[in-house]
Specification:
single chain, alpha+beta, five-stranded antiparallel sheet, 8 helices
């Protein structure tokens, strides 16, 4: 009798362990299926900072209006001489959203003499494993915003068309950032700011 009870107990323990393991495997597989594709997000970062529009356009093929926005921003980053100082791994912040933060040095901040490298953050939304939209933000210091506002208020004739485009012309990110940079340098001179030497 004792032997039968022990055998039944051992069988029950084995079955419970099997079911728990199977459940864990199923849960892990489901979680992996639901998790946003980090690899695609990392490929977006690679493409953006390659400064080649082809790879970026490809990875954003399903991103709607964000595709053109990011291609413009890539052209701006190229013209602004963005240099990656720190790249942290992309992280899932929701089931369908990945956040990637990249710290860069750029000519506009250098022109203002700010001892600070800006961190750009991209939030990538996914649908069926493909990037469907991109939202961007950055931690630009207040002086950067002040200079930008001054340029738009006082040199709008130089930045309006290349930065916003017109009825017969598309925005030109390279010319936009070049004209903005000239405005930043003028603002720095007027305010006796010392340009920062690139590292």
């Amino acid at each position: 009798m004792t032997e039968h009870r022990s055998a039944r107990l051992a069988a029950a323990v084995y079955l419970a362990g099997f079911l728990l393991t199977a459940s864990a495997h199923t849960s892990s597989a489901d979680d992996a299926h639901r998790s946003p594709p980090i690899a695609v997000a990392e490929r977006f970062v690679d493409a953006f900072y390659s400064f080649e529009p082809g790879p970026l356009s490809e990875v954003l093929a399903s991103a709607g209006e964000s595709r053109q926005d990011m291609l413009f921003y890539q052209g701006w980053a190229l013209g602004g001489n963005y240099i990656v100082m720190e790249r942290t791994p992309c992280k899932a912040i929701a089931e369908d959203t990945v956040r990637c933060s990249i710290t860069v040095q750029d000519d506009l901040v250098l022109a203002l003499g700010i001892d600070f490298d800006v961190t750009d953050t991209f939030e990538l939304m996914f649908v069926d494993g493909a990037i469907s939209a991109v939202a961007t933000s950055s931690n630009d210091p207040q002086l950067y915003h002040d200079a930008r506002d001054w340029v738009w208020a006082n040199r709008s004739d130089r930045v309006e068309q290349p930065c916003k485009g017109g009825s017969e012309s598309a925005p030109d990110p390279g010319q936009c950032v070049s004209n903005m940079l000239n405005g930043y340098r003028e603002y720095a001179r007027l305010n006796a700011l010392q340009p920062r030497v690139p590292e």
